[in-house]
Amino acid sequence: MDNSCLQHLLTEDERQTFEETGLLMVEGALSPEQVAALTAETDAVYGRHLEQGHSPDQALFYPNFIPDSPLFADLVDYPKILPKVWGILGWNIYLYHAHLIVTPPSGQTPDDKTFGWHQDSGRVNQEMESHPRPRLSLKVAYFLSDTGQPGRGNFWVIPGSHLRDDLRRPEGGMGQPEGAIPVLAKPGTAVFFDRRLWHTASPNWSDVTRMVLFYGYGYRWIRTKDDMTVQGLWEGSDPIRRQMLGWGTGANGHYSPTDDDVPLRVWLREHSPDEAK
Ligand SMILES: O=C(O)CCC(=O)C(=O)O
Predict the structure, then answer these.
(1) 260 Cα: distance to centroid of ligand 1 (angstroms)
(2) Among the atoms of ligand 1, which is closest to the Cα of residue 153?
(3) Pairing status of strand 93-103 against strand 210-219
(4) 162 domain residue, yes or no
(5) For the chain, what is the domain count?
(6) What are the counts of helices (DSSP H) followed by strands (DSSP E) for the chain?
(7) Which of 144, 184, 200 to mutate to test the pocket of ligand 1 (most atoms within 8 A of CB)?
(8) CB atoms within 10 A of CB 205
């Protein structure tokens, strides 16, 4: 782990924003050069899917994209962002899910149909009996295209809704729930969101293809949410990235980790001891 990451620890203001709203935006997380390089990789993935028959009219939801490019793998333990992830969740974490989404222009005129509002993690929301629901995981969304204006297939959220178990949807399938807003994210922005935050994708009414990379981090005792094939990356990865990619000494180490299971904790003991507890 690059020691430069210590400049990017979660600040108290950031913690408060995330706790209160379920959302945190880090503008300029990626440089314009990184955005350009990641856009080229994402475009290549998209092009391959079009060749394989994916409809150019449909958004591409593509999980397990990390093995497709070293640039995607480099964001798994990205020094500007991972410190904020462990600042929120602690050190017993890994990447449990990742997907990229490419949303081409819909060619349609804007309408006000209710979008697909949800909390993440499917049955977790029915089968965990606590209130409010537990956080368990968060996603970091890296915006590659410019969604700095509404109507560009923006990510929509209801700030502060992460502590609510239910969402009142508008009647008749038209309009958005009270408090809903489009996230206006410029290229290079990283948007953190609590998995419980009520959120949704939206149609792309612009002529700009939307591209976003989603990295989901959760506790090591949570199962993966897609059929991740990142094991092939373990050998060439440093210990903390390997932890993020799901490596461990065995099943029990997901629940009661030894130092071998969680090199992030070992590293924190030396570099940021308060966060190693
Ligand atoms: O594509 C989007 O803006 C929303 C993505 C989403 O709903 C999710 O990652 O759970």
Answers:
(1) 34
(2) 3
(3) antiparallel
(4) yes
(5) 1
(6) 7, 9
(7) 200
(8) 17
Q: Which atom, in ligand 1's list, is nearest to the CA of 214?
A: 9
Question: Domain range spanning residue 197?
Answer: 3-220
Cis peptide upstream of residue 132 (ω within 30 degrees of 0): yes
Query: Which ligand 1 atom sits nearest the alpha carbon of residue 103?
Result: 1
244 occurs within a structural domain: no
Q: Which residues line ligand 1 (CB under 6 A)?
A: 101, 120, 139, 155, 199-201, 212, 214
CATH number, domain containing residue 166: 2.60.120.620
Evaluate whether residue 189 is within a structural domain.
yes
Question: Using omega within 30 degrees of 0 as the cis cutoff, is the peptide bond preceding 159 cis?
Answer: no
**Using one digit for the tens of pLDDT, what is the confidence trace for 3-24?**
999 999 999 999 999 999 999 9
36 vs 10: CA distance, rounded Å: 27
Q: Is residue 263 part of a domain?
A: no
Over residues 49-85, the pLDDT tens digits come to: 999 999 999 999 999 999 999 999 999 999 999 999 9
**pTM above the 0.90 mark?**
yes
